[in-house]
Q: What sequence folds into this?
């Protein structure tokens, strides 16, 4: 495989490594060969509406079938015009109608500061009981529900579960640690998390998101993990294990590298897709190429190229086609250039079969976006293919990694990529992404907007044919950390989510001013089905909102009041 001509060279000195780490939050900006041209025909729409404040709230404390239910009639402050922006319309590539259910008539940049959770969630006195189950998990469960259950007033439940040990959750770009949830077809879910002691564990939940104490917690032998995909008998998990190259921290010989080797030394890993049935590991398939005979730093300064996992972000996502799992993840490549080994960051996609075999697929590739961030994929049964998108500094854009076609230009400092979902009707896709708010300084830590964009995958660059502003930033409001997932069993709706804050730049973990919002929109044209509503849970730009087999959408977050508890946010199918 020839190295892509646009791959920038990364010097392997400690100073260069530190500089890249500092800039990695937005992907380092290098001069690269331009990708395919962006289609300029698009429709920009503002979806501005008043948050839903009408629902009563039910609190349920469920421990070993002991349930106390309290219904309250909240008094909630209603804030209007939460999302306001200037609307610009040009000739769209496709025709859509009725794209906005509720629009704002205030054309101004003076957007009020986002409301806090206290503004929209009533004060509730909760009774919490802790019961310790022998040899299992201390299970403290509290559920808070809102909404009527219709798509226009979605039912949202936040269930608090205690796993009995401290959880490691962060949004560090190069060392992110998330919580991942995946539904079980017959009911319930599994959740993967990392402990502060560095152990990766998987817990099984009942259909009501309480801990299933009859199923033992599984400990997974990985350094860290990127995603989880569950089924009735077990799960697969995408995670890293130590490389087998020997030498310095499993990397081989650092003297092969260009420049000065990192000091202190950086460990090398391989990415695996690992299969568990119950609590037993069945197989572990290596998705990178390093080995004992081909170390991550190659066999010599002029040795063959090697795919491995280095200190770049260990992120990725899993999708399932009904028989095989697709794994799309960030990776590193060692390549001889000028008589020494240079290391580049990018991404890679592999398909794995039910026996752990690597499946030959037109969708898989050794090297895609470079540099790469927010590797996102979905399986599209309409065409029988996995579809991947990334954020890249190759011409500063969202891009298809397998075709290199441009989807959407972005300012790297402002852009978080939420994910990709199938549309309804036109064979295209929706994605959520943050981007620079008009008037903010380019390539800086300013305030962003959150967009819902629509696009198709064709043989030529297509760009987007709809661009809807879900949440507009301002001089005082910053909207970022978007998410997206299909909602409902009929594929007619999509759940979008984002966060707002008054602080500029990338949203920081622990910032108490962060507010998580969710909204239901049409999968056909992106129009608002519900008003945006706040959710009392911590956001995380790297965690996933996932569609369950019953059509609901679930998102796991570290609890706001305990480092050993998880809030499972679930939006019911509608």
A:
């Amino acid at each position: 495989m020839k190295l892509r001509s646009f791959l920038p060279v990364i010097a392997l000195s400690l100073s260069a490594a530190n500089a890249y780490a500092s800039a990695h939050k937005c992907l380092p900006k290098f001069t690269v060969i331009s990708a395919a041209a962006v289609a300029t025909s698009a429709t920009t729409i503002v979806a501005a509406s008043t948050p839903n404040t009408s629902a009563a709230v039910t609190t349920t404390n469920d421990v070993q079938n002991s349930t106390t239910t309290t219904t309250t009639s909240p008094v909630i402050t209603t804030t209007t015009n939460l999302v306001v922006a200037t609307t610009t319309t040009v000739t769209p590539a496709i025709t859509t109608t009725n794209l906005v259910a509720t629009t704002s008539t205030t054309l101004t940049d003076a957007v009020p500061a986002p409301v806090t959770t206290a503004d929209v969630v009533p004060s509730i006195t909760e009774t919490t009981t802790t019961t310790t189950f022998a040899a299992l998990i201390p299970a403290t469960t509290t559920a808070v529900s809102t909404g009527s259950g219709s798509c226009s007033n979605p039912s949202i439940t936040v269930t608090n579960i205690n796993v009995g040990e401290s959880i490691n959750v962060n949004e560090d770009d190069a060392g992110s640690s998330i919580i991942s949830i995946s539904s079980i077809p017959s009911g319930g879910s599994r959740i993967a998390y990392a402990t502060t002691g560095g152990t990766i564990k998987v817990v099984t939940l009942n259909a009501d998101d309480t801990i299933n104490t009859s199923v033992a917690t599984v400990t997974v032998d990985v350094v860290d993990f990127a995603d989880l995909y569950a089924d009735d008998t077990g799960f697969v998990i995408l995670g890293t294990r130590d490389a087998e190259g020997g030498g310095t921290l499993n990397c081989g010989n650092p003297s092969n590298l260009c420049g000065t080797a990192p000091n202190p030394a950086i460990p090398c890993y391989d990415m695996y897709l690992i299969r568990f049935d119950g609590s037993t590991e069945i197989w572990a398939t290596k998705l990178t190429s390093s080995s004992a005979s081909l170390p991550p730093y190659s066999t010599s300064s002029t040795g063959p190229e090697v795919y491995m996992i280095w200190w770049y972000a260990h992120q990725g996502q899993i999708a399932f086609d009904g028989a095989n799992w697709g794994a799309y993840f960030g990776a590193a490549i060692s390549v001889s250039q000028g008589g020494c080994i240079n290391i580049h960051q990018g991404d890679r996609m592999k398909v794995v079969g039910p026996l752990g075999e690597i499946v030959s697929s037109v969708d898989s590739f050794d090297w895609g976006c470079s540099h790469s961030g927010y590797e996102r994929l979905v399986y599209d049964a309409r065409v029988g293919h996995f579809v991947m998108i990334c954020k890249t500094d190759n011409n500063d854009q969202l891009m298809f990694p397998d075709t290199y076609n441009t989807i959407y230009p972005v300012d790297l400092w402002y852009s978080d990529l939420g994910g990709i979902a199938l549309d309804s009707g036109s064979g295209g896709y929706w994605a959520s992404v943050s981007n620079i708010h008009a008037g903010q300084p380019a390539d800086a830590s300013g305030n962003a907007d959150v967009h819902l964009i629509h696009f198709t995958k064709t043989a030529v660059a297509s760009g987007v044919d709809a661009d809807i502003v879900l949440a507009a930033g301002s001089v005082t409001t910053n909207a970022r950390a978007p998410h997206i997932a299909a909602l409902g069993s009929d594929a007619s709706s999509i759940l979008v989510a984002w966060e707002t804050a008054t602080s500029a730049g990338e949203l920081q973990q622990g910032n108490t001013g962060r507010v998580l919002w969710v909204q239901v929109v049409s999968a056909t044209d992106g129009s608002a089905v519900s008003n945006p509503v706040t959710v009392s849970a911590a956001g995380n730009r790297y965690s996933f909102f996932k569609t369950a087999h019953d059509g609901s959408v679930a998102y796991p977050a570290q609890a706001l009041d305990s480092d050993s508890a998880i809030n499972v946010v679930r939006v019911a199918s509608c």
Remarks:
- The helical segments are 14-23, 117-120.
- The radius of gyration is 23 Å.
